UniProtKB/TrEMBL annotation:
Membrane spanning stretches: 312-329
Signal peptide: none
Gene Ontology molecular functions: ATP binding
Cited Pfam families: ABC_tran
Keywords: ATP-binding, Membrane, Nucleotide-binding, Transmembrane, Transmembrane helix, Transport
Record family assignment: Belongs to the ABC transporter superfamily.
PROSITE patterns: ABC_TRANSPORTER_1, ABC_TRANSPORTER_2
The ABC transporter domain, residue ranges: 7-246
The name this protein goes by in its record: ABC transporter ATP-binding protein
Classification via Gene3D superfamilies: P-loop containing nucleotide triphosphate hydrolases
């Protein structure tokens, strides 16, 4: 990998815990041993680079991990392991992404633009263009929760392309608009490309991908199956879907079960060892490979999981907090509770009068 990238994704994985209920989640939080919650690896080690001015397409079957990857690149969700280096501001357009349902369209425009770092006068100057591009009429004054998915997409697209991001991430946002809006978006994307901006384009429409993308990454059940020139990768993907459609119902189910099973049983430690072995083979004189790989895997990641020590600490702090509240309610001093713990259940009555406070049992 060279250093001239705009986006670098290296050995990126994403793990989800598949809790069935909220109480299972709570129990798992306080359990210090190995819990039996099933895991699912939405991404199992993706590495790719996107260069400045490039439009890269992400294709793949439903649930293969395209949105997970685009959300990680745009910083909406964290990766579990790996390096994600994005050089520039990103703006993501996904249906309804970042729009607040209780706010009106106009309020959403202002909020999102402020969040992108624009000032109020800058937003005022852009407002007519954004409103004109979205073209959703009086719905602008309605809460976004009343919008159809097409309207959300129009508003999201209009905001995202006008706040002038370096990197535009478009996740299926073109699939819900009508033809006129679609053409407007395609023209805007072309304008972006001409300006040398970088675009990540997630779509099931291979035609759109063929029109817009310079290169394509085929994401296949959490792995990067292929990365290369649009025409070639799209053709391979078409061959795969043709092959898949030709399977019997049972064969299809078997294939999908097998793929999902791989994602449930993925072993992150084995993957890390494999990366170390590959890098050691490529750099035989580097004695520091294992440490470098470990740093790449976990160095830029804030763990979403608590260590057993942190769990014990949280548990202990919670107990102390409850004890202190209870002691406060009981009206006894800490010393008297420590000397006689049964005081905790004997609430001290406190009478107030205008001049003095008198305690009686
Ligand atoms: N919060 C979550 N908890 C558990 N699993 C999740 C979560 N989010 C996504 N997944 C799983 O991760 C996998 C990848 O999902 P993702 O939405 O990235 O796929 P996709 O390729 O974008 O799919 P589609 O084409 O249908 O939009 C799916 O199997 C999905 O069920």
């Amino acid at each position: 990998m060279d250093n001239s990238y705009k986006i670098k994704v290296q050995n990126v994985t994403k793990e989800y815990d598949l809790f069935k209920t909220q109480s299972e989640k709570l129990r798992s939080f306080f359990s210090v041993g190995n819990n039996k919650v099933p895991h699912f690896w939405s991404l199992m080690g993706i590495s790719l680079e996107v260069h400045s001015g490039e439009t890269i397409g992400l294709i793949g079957v439903n649930g293969s991990g395209k949105s997970t990857l685009s959300n990680i690149i745009s910083g909406i969700i964290p990766q579990t392991t790996g390096v994600v280096d994005v050089r520039g501001d990103t703006s993501i357009i996904a249906i309804g992404a970042g729009l607040r349902g209780n706010l009106t369209g106009l309020e959403n425009i202002r909020l999102k633009a402020l969040m992108q770092g624009l000032t109020n006068p800058e937003i005022d100057a852009l407002m007519d263009d954004i409103v004109g591009f979205a073209d959703i009429g009086d719905f602008l004054y309605q809460p976004v929760k009343s919008y159809s998915s097409g309207m959300k997409s129009r508003l999201g697209f209009a905001i995202a392309v006008h706040v002038n991001p370096d990197i535009l991430i478009i996740d299926e946002a073109l699939s819900v608009g009508d033809d006129t809006f679609y053409q407007k978006c395609v023209d805007k994307i072309a304008e972006f490309k001409d300006l040398g901006k970088t675009i990540v384009f997630v779509s099931h429409s291979l035609k759109q991908v063929e029109i817009l993308c310079d290169r394509v990454a085929w994401i296949h059940y959490g792995t990067l199956k292929e990365l290369g020139p649009t025409e070639e990768i799209v053709q391979h993907y078409r061959d795969f879907t043709k092959w898949f459609k030709a399977q019997t119902k049972q064969e299809k189910k078997h294939f999908q079960r097998q793929m999902k099973n791989n994602q449930k049983t993925f072993d992150i430690d084995a993957y890390q060892k494999q990366v170390v072995a590959d890098r050691q083979a490529a750099e035989p004189n580097n004695g520091n490979v294992a440490a470098e790989v470990k740093k790449d895997f976990y160095g830029s990641v804030i763990s979403e999981k608590m260590t057993p020590g942190a769990r014990w600490l949280t548990f202990a702090v919670t107990l102390v907090f409850i004890f202190t509240c209870w002691a406060n309610i009981s009206g006894h001093s800490m010393r008297s509770i420590i000397q006689n713990p049964s005081n905790l259940v004997h609430v001290e009555k406190v009478l107030h009068d205008s001049n003095a406070t008198k305690s009686v049992k």
